[in-house]
Design goal:
Elements lengths: L1 E4 L6 H21 L9 E7 L2 E8 L6 H5 L7 H10 L13 E8 L16 H4 L5 E5 L2 E4 L2 E4 L3 E9 L2 H12 L15 H5 L1
Antiparallel strand pairs: 1-4, 2-3, 4-8, 5-8, 6-7
């Protein structure tokens, strides 16, 4: 229902541990089985007191994770994707913005259970006027020229800021400008990062 980046729990030692214990062995195992991987491998992880644990793998960009991470990428994504698709060389590292990023998912009433669609949505354009904010559509549609809900996860409101607190404040300020019947969203995104 939301995400933030960077995650303070992911210091350089934890990143190297994740690469050594999870990512590199996974990619090596796929190659050993005759299915070498080239693409976007999303590793959904939980960082526990025993270290990183895999929740899931996806072979695609996920949301809201990509919606919070990609705005921090300080390079053009297309050449990186093109290099992977063609088997070309990748840079040793890619540049990242120092800004923090927060994404808040706005959901339909009843989600993740049963929910109704077709609720008119107002305020998206207003939310996008908040400096540093962007709104991503997920479960929306246009009916008779009106923007309406068309899924459980309706919108993702993302914001950049010089630090996590600033990004959180901006994301929630923008989300507060959007209205539709039954709209709800978590109010504690990045609380662990803010508590550090």
């Amino acid at each position: 229902m939301g995400a933030y980046s960077p995650a303070p729990v992911l210091d350089s030692a934890m990143i190297e541990r994740i690469m050594a214990e999870i990512v590199r062995p996974t990619v090596a195992a796929m190659a050993k089985e005759g299915a070498p991987f080239a693409g976007c491998l999303y590793a959904g992880l939980m960082i526990t007191s025993d270290g990183p644990k895999v929740v899931e793998f996806n072979c695609r960009f996920g949301d809201p994770e990509s919606q919070v991470v990609l705005p921090r990428l300080d390079a053009d994504l297309l050449p990186l994707l093109d290099a992977v698709a063609r088997g070309g060389a990748l840079p040793d590292a890619v540049p990242w913005r120092s800004d923090a990023s927060v994404c808040v998912v706005m959901a339909s009433g009843g989600y993740p259970g049963a929910y109704e669609t077709g609720r008119s949505i107002a305020g998206v354009e207003d939310a996008e006027t908040v400096p540093g904010a962007a709104v991503f559509h997920a479960g929306t549609a246009r009916r008779d020229g009106v923007l309406v809900t068309a899924g459980g996860r309706v919108l993702a409101v993302q914001a950049l800021g010089p630090d996590v607190r600033s990004a959180v404040d901006t994301a929630y300020a923008a989300a507060g400008r959007i209205r539709f019947e039954g709209a709800h969203y978590r109010r504690d995104i990045a609380r662990r990062a803010l508590a550090r």
